[in-house]
Structures are given as C-alpha cells and as structure tokens.
Fold this protein.
Amino acid sequence: MNDETRRLARLDRRHLWHPFTQMRDWEREEPVIIRSARGCRLTDTEGRTYLDGVSSLWVNVHGHRRPEIDRAVRRQLGRVAHSTLLGLGNVPSIELAAELVRIAPPGLTRVFYSDNGSTAVEVALKLAFSYWRRGGEGRKRLFVRLRNAYHGDTIGAVSVGGIDLFHERFRPLLFPTLLGPSFDCYRCPLGRERSTCSRECLAALARLVRRRRDEIAALVIEPLVQAAGGMIVARPGHLAAVASICRENGVLLIADEVAVGFGRTGTMFACEREGVSPDLLALSKGISGGYLPLGATLATDRIYRAFRAPHRARRTFFHGHSYTGNPLACAAALASLEVFRRERVLDRLGPKIRLLGRLLAPLARRPHVGDVRQCGLMAGIELVRSKRTKRPYPFGARVGHRVSMRARRHGLVIRPLGDVIVLMPPLSVSPRDLRRMVAVVGRCIREETE
Ligand code: PMP
C-alpha cells in the first residue's frame, strides 16, 4: 500500500460513515479508494483498474469522463455554478425541462426539480396527496406500496418502501399505507410458480385498490424492475395492468424510474415498453449521465392545474430545495441527452442486451444459482443454499458480499443486494468488457459457492 492510500485509508476509517455499510466490517477491510476513471474503468490510488460493473451505483450512462459532458459542465462553470429557482430562472434548467417533457411518456408536461431519487419520490408523494385535497377529496390520502419496493431513504420514500430489513425499523415514524403484492415470480407472494401463474398478484392488487379506492391517493411502483428489492423483473404486461387498475379506480399512478430510467431497460423510460403514461414520474440517477446529483418529478397538466390559483387561495406547492435545478447538473443532463440522440444509443443497445442474455444463460445451471433475471442491461443473479427449495443462505454468511469482494481482486467492482449479484454496466459498455464482467462474476460465484 502506498503512502497516499495509507493516509487516506486512515482518515476514512477515522472520519467517514459510509452509506448502507456496517462500519465495523468496513474498518477491518482494505478500502479501495477511487482516484480517477475513464469509460467503464475506475482507477484507485494504488493504480489498479477495475471495470465499473454497477455504473457507480446505477448512475453512470455513457462512461466516465465523456468529453461532451465534461465540456458542457466546464462551459457552465464558466457562466454560473449555481443560482436558485426560487423566484429566478436559469438557462440549463429551462432547456432541460423542455427536453425531458419532449422525451417523457405523453401527458407529462411539467418538471419539478430536486436533488436525488428520494426527493424526486418525496415530491411526487406530496403532489399526489395535495392534489386530492385541492380537489375536495380529502379522504384520498393513502398510498399503495408494493412488497420489495425501494423508493429512497427519506421518511416519505421509506413509508412507501417494502424491504423489511431497511424499512420496518422506521415503522413508528412512517405514515400509514396499503401494502400490495410484489411481482416477484421467483418467490411468488401467492405461492405460484411461473408455469402455473394466472397473475393472481394483479387480481389481489385490483381487489385491494377497488375496496379502498375512496381513500387511496396514489399507487407507487418501480416500472418493470424492482431494483433494490433484488432486480425483480415483472412479467410483460404487469405494468400496463397496474396502470389500468389505477385508472379504473381513480387512483394516481406514480412511476419511480430513478433506477430504470434513461435507457437501463432498453428504452429511454421503462413505462414506454407498455405504453403507460403515469400521472407522476420520478427521475434521478442516470438523468445527469451519472455526473452530478439531480432529481426531477414530472407531472401532468391536470395535477399542475390543481395548484394554480390566486395567491390568497394558498394552493402554492410549498416545497423546494436549495440546489433545485442546479445549472451544472442540468448542463450535464442536457449533454447526456445529446449523446443519446447523436449516437443513437438506444437503437444500438439491442445487440448488447442480447449478448448479456447469452452470457448469463449458462450461470443459471450452476448448483447455487437459484434465478437469473435480466431486463435490458440490468441483471440480478440470485444465489441460494438450495436450488430445489430456494432456501437462502443464512444472513450472516454474506455470500453476495464475498463474491463481490472476490470479483474486486479480479478487477471488477460490483455491489450485491444481499445474495443477489447485480450487474448493471454503463450503456456504453463494450461487448468485450461485458464478456469480461460476466466471466469474472461466473468464476467468483463458482469459487465461493461450489
Ligand atoms: N427510487 C429507486 C427506484 C431507487 O433505486 C433509488 C436508489 N437506489 C431511489 C429511489 C433513491 O435515490 P437516491 O439514492 O438518489 O435518493
């Protein structure tokens, strides 16, 4: 270990508190400290390079140090780094809003900015809640959340989460919700197998929504993939069916595309795949190409108009963050969308998605791989103690963590979700790097579990 790494590691252990990290373990492990990156490769302070197998926690889109995005941020720095949207406009936030509305599912016409995925969801929740009160339907104040859902870590977002390990401990602080079934076909909440399923989860959800429709403000869903819940991929048609349930019962649909947006599933937005236009759409992560923190909540005109009234009516949306619409982040986002357009990124994604599918297929035959799930360039490989009974490994075995640590030694950075190994490379990943990523994952799974 060189002097610089040693010094930084000491300071890190002494002063940092890492997110979603048991610090007692962290203090004992050798930290990898990233100094620079280019394309899909990260370089640490020891000069070692790693493939970025999870897009720096699902944010990076076109690779690190994309010249076009670097240039756009520098150009913006030469003008202004930050100016408020409270009472003022700024150039990139206006241009980006118009661009987002242009590419979003039809019907979403307004953009409310914030700083991250949790706040984008938080804004959607507050808008939905206020919308019904403004329309004189004060009873409609409940949210339907799904088991395994993850929408962020602020208290509102946690309230609509469904991962017990993360969320249940905060229950006394959370607002009441209605819990609907996950679309998890591997561990079906209704005890079905993929082969015998008649979409009982949708029928159960429809019953729940119908019964309580007068009390429900909105249903919150991660379209197509429950990402943090374990890369759980919905069957085709599930999202469209949920949207119909909402529409038929006068319930707003909040689509949280924080993880799946910006090309991850193969289309710009996951909702597009099933022709769904939500009432509210939460965006973040890939929005800025993975450069800078930025959140956006898109709303329909109907929702916007419910807040538009004479000042004295006090219908203003009283919400806003200091860095709302940050010009640097918006400039990065505009440059990222320009790369999407100019390089026809989405049109060229198909072969990579199919290659990933072909590479993952043999892993499903390994004795401790219970399930392999893929949607676009998002993939989850669920490791189990018993393939036959789907029995998981004990919590303390940390098999997912061990596989990821081993992958690091082979030059691949990944971060698991429990015992689900996650691969979510930048969209710009080359076929060669994709092959290498899956090869390392396969090897490390074999070495840790067989
Ligand atoms: N929604 C979804 C679907 C997410 O995956 C995440 C983050 N993993 C969030 C919201 C929260 O985003 P952030 O971490 O930027 O607050």
The chain has two domains: 32-62+346-449, 70-342. The chain has 15 helices and 16 strands.
